[in-house]
Amino acid sequence: MKQIYLDYAATTPTDPEVFEKMKFFFENDSQDFGNPSSLHYFGQRAQGALDFSRQKIAQTIGANFREIIFTSSATEANNLIIRGVIDAVENNFKNSARNILPKIIVSSVEHPSVLETVKGLESRKMAEAAYLPVDKNGLVDLSVLEKELNENVVLVSVMAVNNEIGTVEPIEKIAKLIGDYRKSKQDNKEIKYPLFHCDATQAFNLFDLNVIKSGVDLMTFSSHKIYGPKGAAAAYIKGGADKAYFIKPITTGGGQEYGLRAGTENIPAIVGFAYAAEKSFMLFKKEKERLDKISKSFIEEVKKEFPEAEINGFSENKSPHIVNLYFPHNKNIGISLDLMGISASAGSACAQRIEKPSHVLKAMGFSDDRISQSIRFSFGRFFSQDDIRQSVEKISQALKNKKNN
Ligand code: PMP
């Protein structure tokens, strides 16, 4: 049976060209397998590859070389940023006579790697948090953000593109709002709080993420969502390692990554990540247009078979690689789809094994009943217009099979 992959938001296959470039960094013959921290010939070759990759990635987002810190995953980058910022202010808050905690503001539809990290800090009384509500399309309520801002807020974290529904959050507007607030404080402190973090893991492949234009201070992105290998990701840290006294490492050791993330760098994966980023950046405008057509045709075809199906979230003005659909009277269809050769997910892959209704759809106001009848389809580079008809036929057959059982 032909298997159709409709879960590109969970992960992407590694681009064959990218894989080719990575191979040298495993092999004895190429002499490129060294540890970049070693001072000898092999180490220097590996260090060269690391520098080259850091430069390529920095270029794709308009950052400086030293502003890119490699990690193993976007989850780790989110942890580094959130925990690192709180660790860096801990003493200031402890030493103040006011007995208060640093405050983080996050959207209620963030990925679990952000939300669970913030909740963990809250439960250990290391920070307090405010969770921004969203409207029925998953858009963050900026008026609540404005109300929640005060002098204790050290970090605001809002994602660029939601991984379950594809909603594009108003990142530039949020950066401006925070920038205006920082100016209004008129203090002479070197670090202007709050810092603005954007988890751009789902946006990196299809949007221009120039950090100067968007005005973010901290950003996260991951290789395996952009046709690079798993095991590499990055945190963008404005001002770079030199100015990163507003962030403390959570992994300590040999001082790699400018002292912000100890541990030998995964050179083959980082090299793959860099080539994948460069290629995605070159292709993103065309690919976005192509995926826009694909998602529109997909919805049209689905609607022909299931006129009662509804889109969760926006139908336009969203990232075209994600379509989240509600199929009334069809609970938990993931397994039925899989049996017909369609791989799709109910939500974040990381949360699939925990049976909890999607926190994203819940925050949008949907009932548990509707959530259990919803599924996310996500498209990517190796899914073509020609695959749509067959996919919809398979979906239709899966739902019929489910009814007959
Ligand atoms: N943030 C978002 C928005 C994501 O979609 C994901 C992946 N599902 C992550 C973070 C975590 O990425 P990684 O798998 O690299 O840890």
Keywords:
single chain; 405 residues; alpha/beta; Aspartate Aminotransferase, domain 1; Aspartate Aminotransferase, domain 2; three-stranded antiparallel β-sheet; binds 4'-deoxy-4'-aminopyridoxal-5'-phosphate
What is the structure about, briefly put?
This protein has 405 residues and is an alpha/beta fold.
List the helices and strands and how they pair.
Elements (H helix, E strand, L loop, with lengths): L3 E2 L10 H8 L17 H21 L6 E4 L2 H22 L7 E5 L4 H12 L4 E5 L9 H7 L4 E5 L13 H15 L9 E5 L11 H4 L3 E5 L10 E5 L2 H4 L23 H39 L4 E2 L10 E5 L7 H6 L2 E2 L15 H5 L4 H4 L2 E5 L7 H19 L1
Parallel strand pairs: 1-11, 3-4, 3-5, 5-6, 6-7
Antiparallel strand pairs: 2-8, 7-8, 9-10, 10-12
Helix pairs in contact: 1-9, 2-9, 3-4, 9-13
Number of helices: 13
What structural category characterises the helix and strand content? alpha/beta
CATH fold name of the largest domain, please?
Aspartate Aminotransferase, domain 2
What is the CA-based Rg, rounded?
22 Å
Name of the CATH superfamily of the largest domain: Type I PLP-dependent aspartate aminotransferase-like (Major domain)
The tally of strands reads: 12
Percent helix: 40-55%
Principal-axis shape equals globular
Mean pLDDT: 94
Number of domains: 2
Which regions have little confidence, pLDDT < 50, spanning 5+ residues?
none
Listed once per kind, the bound small molecules are: 4'-deoxy-4'-aminopyridoxal-5'-phosphate
Topology pattern, helix = H, strand = E:
EHHEHEHEHEHEHEEHHEEHEHHEH
- CATH class category name of the largest domain: Alpha Beta
Assembly of the depicted chains: single chain
Strand arrangement, major sheet? 2-8-7-6-5-3-4
* CATH architecture classification of the largest domain: 3-Layer(aba) Sandwich
Strand content: 5-15%
